[in-house]
Amino acid sequence: MKKRKILFSLLTLLLVYFIWISFLVLRFKPYKSGTPNTLEVEGVYHIHTRFSDGRKDVDEIARLASLAQLDFIILTDHGSPNFKSLASQGWKEGVLVLSGSELSVSRGHLVALDFKLPSRQFSQNTEQAVHEVSALGGFCIIAHPYSKVRWSWGEFIGYSGLELINANTMLKRNYLLFIPYLPALLIKPEYALLKILEEPTLSLKKWDELNNLHPIYGYYSIDAHLLYRPLLSLLHLHLLLKRPLSPDFKTARGEVLDALRQGKFYNAIEAASEARGFRFWAGEGNETTSMGETLAFSSPVLFRIEAPFPFAKEIHLVHNGKILLRSQENSLSYEAAQPGTYRVEVYLRERSPLSKNIPWIVSNPIYLKKG
Predict the structure, then answer these.
(1) What share of the chain is helix, strand, coil (3-state, %, to 5)?
(2) How far apart are CA 41 and CA 165, in angstroms?
(3) Structural domains of the chain, ranges and CATH numbers in brackets
(4) Looking at CB atoms within 10 Å, which of 4, 130, 252, 267 has the fewest?
(5) In the chain, what is the greatest distance between 2 CA atoms, to the nearest angstrom?
């Protein structure tokens, strides 16, 4: 009799659990934004394939990226560099497939992009590797600085970027939080992934410190080795171009990598809500400065922020790491009277599996420097 009661209690708890998880998952839908803009292209950064330690080949990943309606993806297979991965670039399934390499160097892991093929392997010494990549026309991004192979900070030597969120890191670090939402992987895996994201406090703080020394751009990184389909929908880079993406591979490659090199993009947790339409710039009329640019500061500068989304959100304008103001309006203007680094964070305030303390959108900065 006692065993029957225990069994009945366990079955009841299991039923309650499945009702609870089904309710949460089935009611979840990412919020929608406005009309697509051909000058705003959307893609995913930091993907591993079978050319290193990933589980799928390039063609299959490109097919999944096409289903996710991405404009581009960036492969970052391990190597010094990974020549096979670099040779796989091209238009595949209507998606621009680009490739760099994730280098294992003395300070940690470093992603190198847009370099000419070297005649020999890159150095394992960090400073030398950055110099070699730069000499070949490329630029470097510090990968997952506070996890896995942690980055050992030293003198700033011209890094172009820093990963702010790394999905693979958070998945490994928060796997216990992931367990209650495992059934969601069968129905809406993006829901489960959103639940394991955490506030990137350390990365944001370090990013602000580095920007006091030299412009450096922030990246949301999926670092995908498996779970490609949901990860391709999780974290997106939104690039702002001057013209629609060219159908010519070489031209399109240059357009995307130049936008990354110049910081003309913002990051979004796309699985929580579509972010297309966000804008952050300085100036008025034809005299404007966009994300990633530096403006000589001699008099007050007008900043403009557009977040034209039909749902609740909160905009933070951040100056040198400190919040200047908060707003829940769709449009915001602010007259800056001090030089420094200005960037924007946007937080969802609607019901969402994404924590309200994690920035849904993070812009790259605009720099006001004394002339």
Answers:
(1) 30, 30, 40
(2) 20
(3) 31-276 (3.20.20.140)
(4) 4
(5) 84
